[in-house]
């Protein structure tokens, strides 16, 4: 029996076959693919069972901000005064008696980024024109604060609190907003409607939103509930890092409808650093006016795709002129960063260190030209009058004859009103409740597709149709409306 077992043991060695190399490679690649997939899955973070631990950790660093200012009531009617009193005074050429100036209080949110120095970040619009600023901690401790500096262009402000003896602050860190992805979980903490520290959670809905709030718009969009009073509060990732400053919402009702916008932390970092050191921003300046490169322009210039920023004019004696840039050049790269579209260039230049010489690539007469530009300071150029005010194409207009406020249809409007990509026309932004359009039931968010049986693509098209109809002595304007009920024709009375 023992002998037989020894023979059985030896038999596999004697009969072992050579491994097929192709099969071995295939098995190895399969195993490697599974390993990579498992690693990727482990990096994609799922929603936690609860946000309680994260909220408990972060709440002490989030503050409520109360500001007070004197508001002049000159020219305003005291509340509750009946109309016949107004008529009585106006008929006699007099004016209504005016109340005394009053003290107005507004509320917002903020967060501590440096506990030792008492630095608090918030929105510029939260503290704008404030005569007195108070920071209220989670335990209701009130601290006086002073404004170190603010930046209306990004709506960021930096405060410093007057630390009382025995008061210790808790701080949070600014994270890397470039790492956040659409679909990632985020947490917003703030002071909605003055209720105090409130926590909401949601996901990143979109990146790079341009809501025409300023020249450096690059907002993070989130569906985490953000309401009035949340302004200036932080938007956190699941590691507890601030990846955004909650700044604006879209809301026809005034409450959260799941469309909030936050200034990315990577834009805010440079601003905050400048405000702390200088009390104002120090942005890079190139000295050019630019426009988008359309597909037609790209083809005419010999570009294979519509990319870059087309220079329409160059400031005299500015950095661009000194670098040799010319009108008609298309800036493709600045400081080794791709300029994929026109609106990216101002942000890239602004974030570049003042006085630094950087490489620039431009497309000129069918070939790439490499240049070197020394970045100027935007604030100095503005003070000296070297910077032209940007001229934006008019994208909205009020048509008083119809009682409508209209806007051009773009990506932001499609997102705001949840419209499909194939939607066309002019968007209705607001309806005068006492105007002729309201009488016909027109609503904000609906589209005007045609006016006088002609397609319209801009508010100006509608205004021209109104002008022609009134010139022809028409009493109403025929509109083709695209709304929830589908397409419908509506004849709206024209008010002169």
SSE blueprint:
Blueprint: H1 2-15, H2 21-43, H3 52-58, E1 62-71, H4 83-91, E2 102-114, E3 119-122, H5 124-127, E4 132-136, E5 142-151, E6 156-161, E7 185-190, E8 198-209, E9 219-222, E10 234-236, E11 242-249, E12 260-264, H6 265-278, E13 284-285, E14 288-292, H7 295-301, E15 309-314, H8 319-323, E16 330-334, E17 337-338, H9 344-350, E18 357-364, E19 367-374, E20 376-377, H10 378-383, E21 396-399, E22 404-408, H11 411-416, E23 426-431, H12 436-439, E24 447-451, E25 454-455, H13 459-471, E26 476-483, E27 486-493
Antiparallel strand pairs: 1-2, 1-4, 2-3, 3-6, 4-5, 5-6, 7-8, 7-10, 8-9, 9-12, 10-11, 11-12, 13-20, 14-15, 15-16, 16-17, 16-18, 18-19, 21-22, 22-23, 23-24, 24-25, 24-26, 26-27
Record keyword descriptors for this entry.
Thrombin, subunit H; six-stranded antiparallel β-barrel; Pdz3 Domain; 496 residues; 24% helix
CATH superfamily of the domain at 177-278: Trypsin-like serine proteases
Q: Number of helical runs?
A: 13
Task: Supply the CATH class of the domain at 177-278.
Answer: Mainly Beta
Shape: globular
Largest sheet: 7 strands, antiparallel
Estimate the mean pLDDT confidence: 84
The third-level CATH topology of the domain at 177-278 is Thrombin, subunit H
- List low-confidence stretches: 1-16, 74-94
- Strand fraction equals 25-35%
CATH-scheme architecture of the domain at 177-278 = Beta Barrel
Please tally the β strands and state the result: 27
**End-to-end span in angstroms?**
116 Å
Structural class category: alpha+beta
Rg over C-alpha atoms, rounded to the nearest angstrom: 30 Å
Share of helix, binned: 10-25%
